[in-house]
Write a structure and sequence with these properties.
The longest helix is centred in the middle third of the chain and has 27 residues. Strands 1-2 form a two-stranded antiparallel sheet. It is globular. With about 250 residues, the protein is mostly helical. A hairpin with a 2-residue loop joins strand 1 and strand 2. The protein folds into two domains: about 170 residues, no CATH class; about 80 residues, no CATH class.
């Protein structure tokens, strides 16, 4: 939400690509500030405590956005084409913006995979995630790694908000249902497995699309909640996750 709303505002003064880039940078800085102000002072917080704190922060951001931008619905222009144009792919007509979403999403996943597996900084972040105390003993600044993780998450969230903004539109409270879907996908794919999250997201999207055949459209948003509860009860580690990751209790 924050990335999309910021990009919409900036797009009134600068070209769309620069507006998106600036929105991502601004949201990344906000993510760093949130970690430094609200999270860093906590000593080994439990997962539940972290969830409660971040929910409170999201409410604060939502109410701030309401005062800044109001209740009106906003949208960015389509990157290419328009809302009524489409591309024929094998007899299936798809909006050009959908292709932008899929393409940019694939690039982000590939970039994350390369970052975490091929760069020293990414490996340090993985080490802190696996065992924070052991990472400190190896000379890794765990505090900075946590800040960096918040910045990366905020940047990806802002970019995602910008690329779907032309399709779904954006307003001050539009981040809540997307956050629920994102949390569901993370649990479904297994915590810490970004590649599996892509497959889990596709599964969730397919189930939501097919649900309107048997349920009223109003119940579409409830599918992610039902899947989340089912996974938490039946397989907390997620479909592609490990039991070790599911037992992780420390941040």
């Amino acid at each position: 939400m924050l990335g999309g709303m910021t990009a919409v505002t900036l797009n009134q003064f600068i070209p769309l690509p620069l507006a998106i880039l600036a929105a991502v940078v601004i949201t990344t800085v906000v993510g760093a500030i949130i970690e430094i102000v609200f999270i860093r002072w906590l000593h080994k917080p439990s997962v539940l405590r972290m969830v409660i704190i971040t929910i409170g922060i999201s409410i604060l951001i939502r109410e701030t956005a309401l005062h800044i931008w109001g209740e009106s619905v906003k949208a960015l222009p389509y990157f290419t084409g328009s809302s009524v144009s489409s591309i024929n792919l094998g007899g299936v007509y798809i909006s050009s913006q959908i292709l932008w979403v899929v393409g940019i999403g694939a690039l982000v996943v590939a970039a994350l995979g390369a970052f975490f597996n091929l760069t020293m900084l990414g490996r340090q972040m993985r080490a802190c995630s696996a065992n924070r105390d052991a990472a400190r003993l190896c000379g890794i600044d765990a505090g900075n790694m946590v800040t960096l993780s918040f910045m990366v998450s905020a940047a990806i969230g802002a970019l995602g908000g910008c690329i779907i903004c032309p399709i779904t539109y954006v307003q001050y409270d539009s981040g809540t249902p997307l956050a629920i879907k994102g949390f569901t996908v993370a649990i479904l794919g297994g915590l810490g497995n970004s590649t599996a999250a892509v497959g889990a997201g596709m599964i969730l999207g397919i189930l939501e699309s097919f649900s309107i055949w048997v349920l009223p459209t109003a119940y579409k948003e409830a599918i992610s909640i039902a899947i989340l509860l089912a996974i938490l009860f039946l397989k907390p580690a997620g479909i592609f996750g490990s039991a070790e990751a599911a037992r992780l209790k420390e941040f």
